[in-house]
Amino acid sequence: MTASAVKRSSDNFAHHRGGAAKRRNLRTDRDGDLVMEGPKRDRIGKGPSASRGRGGSINTAALQREVLRHVGSDNRTGGPPRGPRPKSTAQSSLSEIKITGWANSKASTSPDRGVSSLITFLEKHASKRGSLFRQNGRSPAQTAKVRSSRVEGDNLYITVPSEEVSVYAKINGFVFAGQKITITGDGIRGKSPQIDNASPEPANDIKQIFQDFLGRRYNADSKLLSLNALASDEELRAVGIFNTTTTQSKFFPALMKICEAQFQTAQEKKDTIESVTLAENNLSNIAPVTTLGQTFPDLKNLDLSGNKFESTSAMIGWRHKFRHLEHLILSNNPLEQSQPGWEVEILQWFPRLRMLNGAQVRTEEQVAQLNQPKKVPLLVRGPNFEDDGNIAQDFILKFFAGFDGDRTALANTYYDATSTFSLNVNTHAIRDPTKHEMFKKQSWDAYIRLSRNLKHLTHPGPRSARKFQGPQEISKVWSQLPTTQHPSLATEFHKWSIDCIPQEGVPDPSGQYPQGVGGFLITIHGEYNETSSAAGAGTMQRSFDRTFILGPGGPTGVRVVSDLWTVRAYGGFAAFKPEEPQQNQVVAGVPQIAIMGGLTPEQEVLLAEVARATGMNLKYSKECLDTSGWNLQNALATFEAHRANLGPEAFA
Amino acid sequence: MADFESIAKQFVEFYYKTFDENRANLIALYRPQSMLSFEAQAFQGAQAIIEKIQSLPFQKVAHRVDTLDSQPSSETGAILVLVTGALLVDGQERPMSYTQAFQLHPEAGTYFVFNDVFRLVYPAA
Question: Source organism's superkingdom (chain A) (predicted)?
């Protein structure tokens, strides 16, 4: 490479520029920007990374070049344009660029002052940056090659293919052998070195124009970015943005990119811009502005009025975007006439939409329900509890108090030699998304080695080893499990779901009744806190399902025949809430009229019937029904059983 | 006779497969003395139970069994089965958690469902 080999006169090229710009209008260059001119496809199904990938970057780079041709040369340098200009075709033109700042590098002691290593350095880094221009099936950019070079004083001039100038721009400010180098030349802006991120940025002057534009169009008080009637914006027109379809189609994505760059975090963006209007833009579909959905996914208000949408399909790319959109304006679009029922479709697209064209379409309550767990499609009712003489209720109260308190005593009270207990862990259970427990790491160490999940446990050995029988075995296993605190059955009953069903044929330990005796099947769903665990401190909230078979026997007259316990991640108690309001607990001294409050018509009839049949007052009649599951016969039986103990106050 | 764990497992697999494919066929598992508690609504007898099951407001359903455990529960060879899992109905995006307790009673070398206690423990979100 001799210094003078390809020395070119700036003037030779400068006057070609206008013609080059015209002829290049719809040509591709090596960066392939015209690939973007193909059919527009919306990006449904692509994640945000796809939308910010190379396509977008190249779009911007292409825009930059397109717009630059309209804007004129790099005016900030003041003087006449310097350096070579592209020739009539992009492929064959060469450009000269100047490198300074290397003269005092560590490599400067070598005979050529480090120039050859500097050129290698430039080629290497330019090639790496050049690879970013690969896209959509096109062959990778060739290795950047410096065609010729010359040194004048402390300046190195290199000649490179014009279309590669932009990759050299990207390594402007790189450190070569301890010295920061500066690269200047036509098409290279004074780029600060730290802005060397992966994607090409719009040139600073275009950036400035766009930033000024955004500044003019943003209203901080209403957090509104008005992109109304873009084509009639004087300043954008002045720079020729809308002169060609090419620049026009690239304008919006570039604008969004610059918008995006203004914010450090998504939250900041969300807090700054809540509303966007794109009214009066003559849009027949959203293709030119579809990137709005990626840049402002959390938008609350969007005005698309006065466009040319003929049907909702014109905006299909935004279906299920804008998940927090509250107000949408589509007035003065043809679809209002041409697509009856368009509103219904729009409502489905945007689940949190409250206002459409200024009219309320959903209430706050309806939207709030979206954030609540749904109770569809199965109807959830209050517990089914058939319990003669409060045997089961008494057991449940004592059982959980004992389980939280003294498990050994509990085992000895309710479990005999034939009682069985087993435990399993449901590690797949759905967690409650409203609780912080959702995000806690679920550690099942204390349980899992005892877990008897027959779905996975297939060998008879472990199956048998994880079924525990008799109070000794059972209390020993319980002692290995984390200590617990269950919510109060008296004051936090809403956190429980308990069913109790009478059972026949329950084993009789006395052997008196070989066909078995009466007992109960009790199913309990609820939650507890771990107050300690073998693993160490830290309180964990769990949900559980526990099923008991109760039969007669044992020291209290009631014994556990079977105890099956499933432990799972905390899932809350939303599922236990009855659809119908439950009767309130009767409080002593409450006026009789208040007792009637909250009752269903059926319950009022039952209450009146019990009061009539027993002669008790409403308060006692209701208590009686409460303890009898609002079953008339049970209530009358309960009354008969307790009649002798009732004082005169029951009948007053 | 197979051990009660294997019976429980076979039963659970059969029950949910039938439920998900054609729930009307579940009637074969119930008897006149069978009882279903469905979210605390009680139904007795195979006919009432199957009517309830068929009237559930969804077309397609898929059960996923997460845990299954069983214990013998009576002198006469009854088996208590506790299942927890998730179920997905029709177009719902998220599953619901359910638990179901079965009491299986032996009958002439086979078993029928004596008690069936179903409850959602976590609704769809």
Answer: Eukaryota
**Which strands form B30-38's sheet, in the order they lie side by side?**
B41-44, B30-38, B110-122, B96-107, B79-89, B61-72
Residue A304 has pLDDT above 90, yes or no: yes
Q: Rounded distance, CA A402 to CA A384, Å?
A: 24
Same structural domain, A422 and A338: no
Domain span at residue A458?
388-576
Looking at the 3D structure of chain A, how many domains does it have? 4
Continuous segment of H or E residues that includes residue A236 = helix A234-238
Which of the listed residues A551, A576, A601 is the one where a domain comes to its end? A576
Same domain, A406 and A442: yes
Q: How far is A526 from chain B (nearest CA, A)?
A: 9
Q: Are A522 and A500 in contact (CB under 8 A)?
A: yes
Same domain flag for A499 and A563: yes
Q: Does the structure show a pLDDT above 60 at B85? A: yes
Note if the pTM is more than 0.95.
Answer: no
User: Residues A441-488: pLDDT tens digits?
Assistant: 677 888 888 899 888 888 888 888 888 999 999 999 999 999 999 998
Check residue A89 and give its pLDDT.
Answer: 41
| The predicted structure's pLDDT at residue A299 | 92
Are the beta carbons of B96 and A467 separated by less than 8 Å? no
Query: How far away is chain A from the Cα of B125, in angstroms, using its nearest Cα?
Result: 4
- Rounded Cα distance between A252 and A230, Å, is 10
CATH number of residue A122's parent domain:
3.30.70.330
pLDDT surpassing 70 at residue A400 = yes
Q: Give the pLDDT band of residue A533 (cuts 50, 70, 90).
A: low
Query: Is the pLDDT reported for residue A40 higher than 60?
Result: no
Contact B66 A430 (CB under 8 A): no
Report CB contact under 8 Å: A422, B89: no
Quick check: bond before A578 cis, omega within 30? no
pLDDT attached to residue B4: 86
Shortest alpha-carbon distance between residue A553 and chain B (Å): 14
Residue A39 pLDDT: 35
Domains of chain B from N-terminus onward? 3-119 (3.10.450.50)
Tokens of A240: 């020729």
Q: Are residues A525 and A585 in the same domain?
A: no
The CATH number of whichever domain residue A487 belongs to comes to 3.10.450.50
Is residue B46 within 8 Å of B27, Cβ to Cβ? Answer: yes
Q: Give the closest of B57, B76, B80 to A547, CB-based.
A: B80
| Interchain proximity B69–A374, CB inside 8 Å | no
